[in-house]
Amino acid sequence: MGNLNKEIRDGDHPDITEERLKSTFDTHKMAAQIYNSQRAADRRNEITSAVLKIPELQDIKPLPFLSREEKVEEAARKIGILSEHLYDLVNVNDGAELYHLNNVVIGGEGNPLALHGVMFIPVLQAQATDEQKKKWLYRAMKREIIGTYAQTEMGHGSNLRKLETTATYDKATEEFVLNSPTTTSMKWWPGNLGKSTNYAVVVATLIINEKDYGPHSFMVQLRDENTHKPLPNIEVGDIGPKMAYNATDNGFLKLNHLRIPRTNMLMKHVKVEKDGTYIKPPHAKMSYSAMVHVRAHMNNTMAYFLASSLTIAVRYSSIRRQGHINPKEPEVKVLEYQTQQHRLFPHIARAYAFSFAGAETVRLYEKVKKDMESGETELMADLHALTSGLKSVVTYLTMQGIEQARQSCGGHGYSMASYISEIYGIAIGGCTYEGENMVMLLQLARYLMKAAKAVKEGKKVEGLVGYLSAPDNRHSLIDRTPEKSYDTYLKTFEHIARQQIFRAFDKLEKMLTSGLPHSEAWNKCSVELTRASRLHTRLFIAQAFARRVHDVVDFHIKEALDDLLHLHLNYELLDVASYALEDGHLCGEQMNFIRSELYRSLGKIRPNAVSYVDAWELSDMELRSVLGRRDGHVYENLYKWAQNSSLNRTDVLPVFEKYLKPLMMSARKNSKL
Ligand SMILES: CCCCCCCC/C=C\CCCCCC(=O)SCCNC(=O)CCNC(=O)[C@H](O)C(C)(C)COP(=O)(O)OP(=O)(O)OC[C@H]1O[C@@H](n2cnc3c(N)ncnc32)[C@H](O)[C@@H]1OP(=O)(O)O
Ligand SMILES: Cc1cc2nc3c(=O)[nH]c(=O)nc-3n(C[C@H](O)[C@H](O)[C@H](O)COP(=O)(O)OP(=O)(O)OC[C@H]3O[C@@H](n4cnc5c(N)ncnc54)[C@H](O)[C@@H]3O)c2cc1C
Q1: Atom 32, ligand 2: which residue's CA is nearest?
Q2: I need a surface site. Which of 182, 211, 376, 431 has the fewest CB within 10 A?
Q3: Which residues act catalytically here (predicted)?
């Protein structure tokens, strides 16, 4: 049968092997839960093994030692080699396999095809007519052309209806004239726009006969397909270095009265006829599909980033010994400290929770995508509400978790050798891209306020907001019933979300009744509204976690997930408990119970801690972390890693002769005077 933890190897650091031997579950079976099937988990490992056999696909040196230009070049080099091996390595129609291949070979810092795969192809799939697909999509899929999604401008990202780039229809020539009239109207941020791409789907405000029809998508060729030089009337370049994600050339684009054929507007759902007649789409927001696509997948990418930093931190905490719990005994692994466990374990639970919530979201997304093909749009609002809330909450909590992972590694966490700071920099971009978090929480709040209104009017609401119509207990039953089901916790989360949703609703209604215009009242309630959105979303995450645990069949996996869920529910409830204490739903005695359950949970998780992170099956190649090495041999490799520093190429740097020597000489001379 072998070891339950599949990462055990001879020669590993004994402290980490000791942890793995304690595992109560099969880590590869757990991987099947995380990646949604045993087959998917197997495929990940097969892909990793195959990549390890191709020497040209290995990093030329640790990425933190590369300059920005070298990072861009290195990612492009690997994309080139990957193209040769692609069909042998993965099923190219499987997004998860492609994503894994990218993570192993290139990592999260980006590559020239990042936006091509994440947004350019999806937007063509969703919004191009069959004829347009023949012209661009199939070429894009074969990588004959490389594209991006150019929407955000220097002056506007969140408020799409105020994009300044115009696409004015010229009936006489049957062309659109694309123009960036001001500095602020320049496209600013699109990934890979700077240097890599030769096409872009540009989002611009459609004008026909001087009437503004709002944002629409247009295919624009940016560069010559052979020379890669920008075409006439186009200025394009890189926006400069960012906090992280620097292998990606996020770019700017200025369009100077550029003419494109009428048929370059993506017209699957919406049309502009030759004579300028506008035919509206079945749903006004169908053109936002590429954003919804990314938002729907972001839970899983965030779960991955969070799990990566926790794998690093937990493995390192199992070999790092410092201080004593019992002064008579040797120094302990820092993982023994309750503070360390409290710092890390709840985030492990969140990574699992985000992955399970992510799987449900992707399922809904796939359904809505299929519906949209036939013009059916009923579930679009539900999906938009769900993805808006999740995108905001999950990115924010991921940011918190990664930072805790970094701090838990002490000084070495701050070194790029941990790689956590790079993961952090990449992940927190998610708080901003695909809709700034506050803006998206307020989108969900619109949906919640509609549901609250319906309930107040005596109507029954269903689906994601069904709990607003369901009966509520005045007092939480946590620690009040003999039965120890998670329902009592979930009911308490429901109560908290419901109370906050109605609190925000009542406040808004009061202001509206007092005569305040809706937009002003909305702004004055917006902090309460975002709170409602967060609580609703955190309820969904907890429910998704409970649903998954409920469905698991394997006894040991179920038991291990059950422990994590128990930790999750107690930790999350403590985090939001003030809402339930305010109206007496929870009392002090129940708070003590929840706290003691949390501490008990930490102890229960402790023996499996390394196995919970190992179950993500993140190879050394993809983690790129000295602290997170699978074998636990951190210290000797930290020393080796530092040898890569270009500062170590000579014992004496030129700055000594140039600046330090004169400085010290002059100081010595002065002290002799
Ligand atoms: C395989 C995939 C892997 C994924 C990997 C991810 C990792 C990749 C790493 C890096 C890639 C980075 C990519 C980043 C790319 C970008 O950032 S692209 C730019 C993204 N930009 C945004 O997200 C802009 C945010 N703003 C908006 O989306 C909109 O402006 C808005 C939704 C905030 C408002 O739109 P507006 O048209 O003004 O509508 P409203 O008046 O506010 O609302 C009117 C009604 O429309 C409903 N609605 C809005 N959007 C949708 C939608 N998408 N679907 C359905 N319904 C929608 C809204 O709820 C309103 O309904 P009610 O009137 O009934 O309340
Ligand atoms: C790493 C990265 C990659 C990106 N890639 C792309 C890409 O490929 N293509 C692309 O088109 N774009 C891309 N973007 C741009 C990104 O989508 C936008 O930056 C994002 O949508 C936020 O918009 P903004 O910059 O206008 O923020 P702003 O709206 O200016 O936000 C500033 C502040 O104003 C607040 N705010 C704004 N509006 C409201 C409101 N209505 N109510 C309350 N508060 C409000 C926000 O909450 C925030 O605190 C990328 C950005 C990043 C960081």
Answers
A1: 436
A2: 211
A3: 434
Q: Is the CB of 149 under 6 A from ligand 2?
A: yes
Q: Same structural domain for residues 275 and 318?
A: no
pTM across the whole model:
0.98
| 191 appears as a binding residue in the annotation | yes
Residue type at 337 in one-letter notation:
Y
Query: Which residues sit opposite 601 in a β-bridge?
Result: none
Boundary of a domain, candidates 565, 595, 613? 613
pLDDT digits (tens, 9 = 90+) for 343-395: 999 999 999 999 999 999 999 999 999 999 988 999 999 999 999 999 999 99
Domain carrying residue 177? 147-280
Ligand 1 atom, smallest distance to 149 CA: 18
Residues designated catalytic:
434
Give long-range contacts, CB 8 A cutoff, 24+ apart: 502-510.
502/452, 503/528, 503/532, 504/445, 504/448, 504/449, 504/452, 504/528, 504/529, 504/531, 504/532, 505/449, 505/452, 505/453, 505/456, 508/449
CATH of the domain at 321: 1.20.140.10
Domain count, the chain: 2
105 belongs to a structural domain: no
Instruction: Tell me the best of 149, 433, 448, 465 to mutate to test the pocket of ligand 1, counting ligand atoms within 8 Å of each CB and taking the most.
Output: 433
For CA atoms 492, 489, 445, 463, the dihedral sign is: negative
Nearest CA to ligand 2 atom 43: 439
294 and 272, same structural domain?
no
Q: Are 318 and 306 in contact (CB under 8 A)?
A: no
Distance CA 221, CA 203 (A): 13
Whether residue 316 sits in one domain with residue 266: no
Does the predicted interface ipTM exceed a cut of 0.90?
Answer: yes
In a domain, 317, yes or no: yes
Residue whose CA lies nearest to ligand 2 atom number 20: 433
Ligand 1 centroid distance, CA of 565 (Å):
31
Question: Do both 511 and 543 map to the same domain?
Answer: yes
Ligand nearest to the CA of 432: 2
Where residue 264 sits, what CATH number does that domain have?
A: 2.40.110.10
Q: Is 110 in the pocket of ligand 1 (CB under 6 A)?
A: no
In a domain, 418, yes or no: yes
Q: Are residues 268 and 355 in the same domain?
A: no
Instruction: Give yes or no for residue 188 CB within 6 A of ligand 2.
Output: no
